[in-house]
Design goal:
Structural class: mainly alpha
Number of strands: 0
Strand content: under 5%
Shape: globular
Helix content: over 70%
Largest sheet: none
Number of helices: 8
Radius of gyration: 19 Å
Distance between the termini: 33 Å
Oligomer: single chain
Amino acid sequence: VPYLSAFALMAVAAGLMFALKAPAQEPVKDAQAIRMIVEGLRFVWGNKIVLGAISLDLVVVLLAGAVALLPVFARDILHAGPSEMGVLRSAMGVGAASVALWLAVNPLRQRVGAWMFGATIVFGLATIVFGLSQWMWLTAFALAVAGGVDMISVYVRQTLIQLNTPDPMRGRVAAVSFVFISASNELGDFEAGLMARIFGP
């Protein structure tokens, strides 16, 4: 059932994407891959709003990548079984999806910077609660809160990046952002595992 559900949702998403009509764009003249990559990196480095948004995500994920430790926490600290592990693993997604639906109906229009930094602080606090909790329900709640506020932070950061990037540069900036986010997730998981190995979960 989960795999069929995921397949059905992917099929719907693909159909909706193919139904979109991309706006006309002027072709890039004298396009050279290396030069375009360097231009994208220079733009990110020179635009403080874009650089700040990408850097914030990199630092937060690098230092708060606790999801990689869920199996250890479920088994050794919470003494939970596979079903409880499933609840913990889905808690962040439930929190993120709930907040995403709320943001779709109530988009942030004022004080977005305060929302972004506030969400980042709450994410850190929720991660600390996750690390200290000895109770299953509190751990799941902390993960749901972390997922929800992370969605707020991602929503604001990605909007800031899009609004502060000109059309010809948008693809390259999105690529830089994607690489940084992906790399920080992997490095964050490695850092979390290494710290757990040295100091214990």
